[in-house]
Amino acid sequence: MFKYTPRNMNGIFAIDKPSGVTSSKFLLDLQDLFTKSHVFEQHLQEFRDGRRAALSTDKKWKKEKIDKKIRNLKVKIGHGGTLDPLASGILVVGVGSGTKQLSHYLGECDKTYETKALLGISTTTGDSEGDILSKNKVDHITKKDVEKTCEKFVGNIKQMPPIFSALKMNGKPLYEYAREGIPLPMPIKTRDVKVNSLTVLDDTMSTDHEFNKLETDLNPEEQNKLFHNETLLKTPLYFSDQYNEANEKTTETAPPRVLEDGEQLPEKLPMIHFVTSVSSGTYIRSLIGDIGRALESSAYMVELRRTQQSDWKIGKNVFRWEDFAENDDRVWGPVLKAVLEQGHEVDVAKELEATREKMAPLIQEEKERLAKHGLEESSEQVQKKRKESETEEHKENGSNSEKIDPEQKLDI
Q: Where are the compositionally biased (Basic and acidic residues) regions (predicted)?
């Protein structure tokens, strides 16, 4: 069986993370796939040899301890900015020494998102995974209102990070203050971010969509505690510097319109759908919440997709999980190698198809030869066993996997 085992698999690439999985879990799965592949055999062996040589100079490290350490080493991998579990789209990934190039993606580059939100409800997390914080009127809002309101946020703005985020104050996560119903010891520091553009799409204000209205599963006492939580409810609203300068406006706006006694929200809430390009550090959940408040209502995010980060763009130069999991590593290996060396200029889908067509006759010939002689396992059988082994390993190591508080939201 011929293998593709290149050297120096170091660099940057981008992959499309699906919704419903944490960024950390997704990267761990990717790391395991790479570590078990032939593609990274030589790269990993050189890495292990280097680590072994370094550890062997330390008298504190005995041979048995070194062997165990080296045996457990995996392909070095890192990210250039996480996505919440609800979100899908681009994750920029650094491999090997490429992890040193990730700082640009973490704090300096622009990102483009497509997002959908429902009007009339705000939540503790700013999205559909949180508890209901308030319910507000929506019948006064038109699509034109949404378009005019969104214009107020284009430019340089100050943004209040969501309290249900990874941020801490005095060593305590912000969401714990909210959960306990106690005020923050000091105001949350705002972030200076930039909304480069914001385009409201045609189906905005439509109720013909797949998203159901969020319902609470809290008891009345818990719900009442949230409804009167000053930490969550009273936060400043900021419009862009450019809008304020052009219109001589302040941050003041009318408060959200409260439902009358006995009044209910419609079963299908109107949807906001827009595409926005923003600077690093911008919270889309916060932007959506602010737009809802500026409309004298409220809003929560139901869908988010990162479609571009710097020069990496969905449909152009971004891998999918299936590209690795469903293809022979002799197909995806050369394409990944090209991207690590040449960067975002490589058309991933086009190169994968070309490599697949080139390798197909060779792989088929190998399968027929092995089947005829019955001497070895085919490449497909080897990969099947790898997947089975990986599944068992995840079961055994499940307790050691990285744990993330479901209410501790990540930066997006």
A: 363-376, 387-412
